[in-house]
């Protein structure tokens, strides 16, 4: 096996290199300076379709075309893009693919954490050179944002609201003036055309640092919704499970669509506080029960089925991961889950196996 094939999660621009090349060849629309593709082609890359030469472009995002068009149009202006929504609404996924399509490089990434300092957004120093030579360009260590400015590429900031407020505000000058002052060298970095920032944030996380009004004004905000229908969410989970399963060497047939449908139904009903037919109201657990969590539950069940079962995902393979995803609070969530099992799952025709498997774990 080639070394490249052993990488657990290659970057988007590597995985979809052939698609990006085919789109670029057939792209006849105007491209902003330093963009690899036109805005029209970027949207086609994310939403999928058929090119004139017959090449099929895989769908990366299942959802509103208009939403993606707004996001791409924002990146072609001088305003930064903020993708916001609850965990698991494909914010990071969309951010990565936008960077891959626009700049051909999704690696200029700042991962937001509570302990992040301003060097991660501005620049740092090679302290050995700094001590021996003093402040100089060679001693400077550019941040991903600084590299994006110098190269005219998109920079990504994940979990923006996890970053301390005083560190967040380092983005204000960068986004408004398109410059990054370096007072130690009495100089500045001026952004090249093509530079912009895609940030992601969620409003369900604990320890959120609200954005200042000054910083929020520099962003155009796009709210990432949950899948609109059961069918759409099942399709997303099935597609992602198959894609990720290849890299984890899990056979696609190990996750039958029937089990995915049952899992997604459970998540959607508990998330919305009512059954799919709207007849029964339900209590909602503290967990977000996102599409991303559904994908994780299926993957965990697949691994159990392949390595410790008969190779095909069944109710008992799903049960442990479902319980773990729903019961975050061992007291309150457990009561809600038990009530749902007794009033909904137990009464559903053909769901006896999943009812028994989940009950055994409680």
Describe the structure.
- This protein is an alpha/beta fold and 362 residues long.
- The chain folds into two domains: 220 residues, Rossmann fold (3-Layer(aba) Sandwich), CATH 3.40.50.300; 131 residues.
- The protein has 16 helices and eleven strands.
- The strands form four sheets. It has a five-stranded parallel beta sheet with strand order 4-7-10-3-11. The chain has a two-stranded antiparallel ribbon with strand order 1-2. A two-stranded antiparallel sheet has the order 5-6.
- A hairpin with a 5-residue loop joins β1 and β2.
- It is globular and about 70 Å long.
- The protein starts with 11 loop residues before the first helix and ends with a helix.
- The model has no long low-confidence stretch (mean pLDDT 91).
Which percent range fits the helix content?
Answer: 40-55%
CATH-derived architecture of the largest domain: 3-Layer(aba) Sandwich
What portion of the residues fall into strands of 2 or more residues?
5-15%
- In terms of structural class, how would the helical and strand content be classed? alpha/beta
Could you list the spans in which at least 5 consecutive residues all have pLDDT below 50? none
What value does the Rg take, in angstroms? 23 Å
Give me the strand/helix succession. HHHEEHEHEEHEHEHHEEEHEHHHHHH
Specify the CATH class of the largest domain: Alpha Beta
């Amino acid at each position: 096996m080639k070394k490249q094939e052993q990488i657990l999660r290659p970057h988007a621009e590597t995985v979809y290199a052939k698609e990006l090349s085919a789109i670029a060849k057939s792209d006849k629309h105007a491209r902003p300076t330093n963009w690899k593709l036109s805005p029209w082609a970027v949207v086609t890359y994310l939403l999928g379709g058929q090119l004139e030469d017959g090449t099929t472009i895989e769908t990366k995002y299942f959802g509103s075309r208009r939403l993606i068009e707004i996001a791409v149009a924002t990146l072609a202006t001088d305003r930064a893009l903020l993708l916001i929504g609850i965990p698991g609404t494909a914010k990071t996924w969309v951010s990565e693919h936008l960077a891959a399509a626009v700049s051909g490089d999704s690696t200029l990434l700042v991962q937001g954490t509570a302990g992040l300092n301003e060097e991660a957004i501005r620049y740092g120093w090679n302290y050995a050179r700094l001590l021996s030579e003093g402040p100089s360009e060679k001693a400077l260590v550019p941040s991903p944002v600084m590299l994006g400015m110098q190269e005219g590429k998109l920079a990504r900031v994940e979990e923006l609201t996890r970053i301390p407020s005083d560190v967040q505000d380092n983005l204000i000058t960068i986004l408004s003036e398109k410059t990054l002052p370096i007072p130690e060298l009495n100089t500045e970095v001026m952004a090249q055309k093509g530079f912009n920032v895609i940030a992601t944030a969620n409003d369900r996380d604990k320890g959120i640092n609200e954005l200042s009004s000054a910083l929020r004004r520099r962003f155009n905000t796009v709210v990432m919704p949950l899948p609109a229908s059961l069918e759409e969410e099942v399709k997303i989970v099935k597609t992602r499970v198959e894609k990720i399963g290849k890299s984890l060497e899990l056979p696609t047939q190990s996750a039958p669509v029937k089990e995915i449908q049952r899992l997604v139904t459970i998540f959607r009903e508990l998330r919305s506080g009512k059954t799919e037919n709207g007849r029964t109201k339900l209590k909602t657990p503290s967990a977000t029960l996102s599409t991303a969590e559904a994908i994780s539950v299926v993957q965990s069940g697949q691994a159990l089925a392949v390595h410790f079962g008969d190779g095909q995902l069944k109710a008992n393979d799903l049960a442990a991961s479902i319980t773990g995803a729903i019961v975050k609070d061992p007291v309150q969530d457990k009561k809600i889950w038990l009530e749902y099992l007794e009033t909904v799952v137990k009464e559903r025709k053909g769901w006896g196996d999943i009812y028994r498997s989940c009950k055994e774990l409680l």
